[in-house]
Design goal:
Strand order of the largest sheet: 1-2
Strand content: 5-15%
Radius of gyration: 38 Å
Helix content: 55-70%
Structural class: mainly alpha
Order of helices and strands: HHHEEEEEEHHHHH
CATH class of the largest domain: Mainly Alpha
Number of domains: 2
Number of strands: 6
Length: about 300
C-alpha cells in the first residue's frame, strides 16, 4: 500500500487528537474530583453509582420522615407531661378538699383553681404541632376537645374516633406518630371537670369521690407516655441505623466515583509530555515538502 503525505498527516492528527482527549479527561478528573465523567467512561461503575445515589436519596427521605415523626412525638410527650402536672395538682386539691372541716369559701377556692387547671388542660389537649392538632388525628378542621356547660357544671367532649397519623420510616414499615385524643386524655380532663364541679357546687364528700378518678387518669397518662417513649426509642434506633447506612453508602460511592488525585496528576504529566513529544515529532516529520528536495 502506498503511503501518501495526506495519509501521514491524517494519522498524525488523529493521534494528536486522541492525546488531547486523554489530557482533557485527566484535567476534568482533577477539576471535578470524579473518576467517572460520563457513563461511557465506565458503564458498570456508572450503573452502580446511580444505584448508590438512589439509595442515598431514599435514605435521606426516610431520615426526614424519622425526624418529623420524632418531633411530633416529642411535642406529644411534652403536652402529656404538662397534663400530668395539672392532674397531680388536681389530685392534691381533691385530697385537700375531702376534709370535712373546710368551709364553703375554702371549697370555692379549690373549685376556682380546679377550673383554671381544667381550662389549661383543655388548651394543652388542643395543642398543635405546626398546623396539626396533636390529639386530633387527621381531622384538622376543628379543635379535638371542647368545654360545655350544663347548668353550673361543665364537661369535656373528646374527639370521636380520631384517625391514626402514620409515617413511613422504611420500605413497607410505618409508625404511628400521634396519640388519638379519645384514648389517653379523657380520664384526666374528666377528673379535673369532676373536681371543679364538686368543689364549686357540691360538698367535701363530693370532692372526695373524685380522688379515685385522678388515680385512673394518672394511670392512663403514664400508659400513654410509656407508649410514646417506646416509639421514640424505635425512631432513635432507626435514625442511628440510617446514619450508619449513609456513611457506608457514601464510602462505597466515593470508592467508585472519586478520582485518585495523585495518580491523575501523574497521568496528566505523562500525557502532557507525550503530547509535547508528538508535536515535536510532527514538526520534524511533516515539514519537508517537494520544494525542500528541489533545493
Amino acid at each position: 500500500m502506498r503511503i501518501t503525505s495526506t495519509m501521514m498527516m491524517t494519522t498524525y492528527l488523529n493521534d494528536l487528537h486522541r492525546r488531547m482527549q486523554d489530557m482533557e479527561r485527566s484535567e476534568s478528573e482533577l477539576t471535578s474530583g470524579r473518576a467517572i465523567q460520563r457513563p461511557s467512561d465506565d458503564p458498570i461503575g456508572a450503573t452502580r453509582v446511580l444505584s448508590l445515589r438512589t439509595q442515598l436519596a431514599q435514605n435521606a427521605q426516610y431520615l426526614r420522615n424519622v425526624d418529623a415523626a420524632r418531633s411530633f412525638l416529642s411535642a406529644t410527650e411534652t403536652n402529656v407531661n404538662s397534663i400530668v402536672d395539672l392532674v397531680q395538682r388536681g389530685h392534691e386539691l381533691a385530697v385537700q378538699g375531702a376534709n370535712d372541716t373546710l368551709s364553703a369559701s375554702d371549697l370555692q377556692a379549690i373549685g376556682a383553681e380546679a377550673d383554671q387547671l381544667l381550662q389549661q388542660a383543655v388548651q394543652i389537649a388542643n395543642g398543635k404541632y405546626g398546623s396539626y392538632y396533636l390529639f386530633g388525628g387527621t381531622d384538622q378542621s376543628t379543635a379535638p376537645f371542647s368545654l360545655g356547660a350544663s347548668g353550673a357544671n361543665v364537661s369535656v367532649t373528646p374527639p370521636t374516633n380520631p384517625t391514626a397519623m402514620m409515617r413511613e420510616i422504611a420500605v413497607g414499615e410505618q409508625i404511628q406518630v400521634n396519640i388519638p385524643g379519645n384514648t389517653v386524655l379523657p380520664a384526666a380532663l374528666n377528673a379535673l371537670a369532676a373536681l371543679r364541679n364538686a368543689a364549686l357546687n357540691g360538698t367535701s364528700a363530693d370532692v372526695k369521690a373524685t380522688i379515685d378518678q385522678f388515680q385512673t387518669a394518672l394511670d392512663s397518662l403514664m400508659s400513654g407516655l410509656a407508649d410514646v417513649g417506646a416509639r421514640l426509642n424505635r425512631l432513635d434506633a432507626t435514625q442511628s441505623r440510617y446514619g450508619d447506612l449513609s456513611v457506608n453508602l457514601n464510602g462505597l460511592l466515593s470508592q467508585l466515583q472519586d478520582a485518585d488525585i495523585a495518580n491523575t496528576i501523574t497521568t496528566l504529566q505523562l500525557q502532557q509530555t507525550s503530547y509535547q513529544a508528538a508535536l515535536a515529532t510532527g514538526a520534524r516529520v511533516l515539514v519537508p515538502s517537494l520544494l525542500d528536495f528541489l533545493h
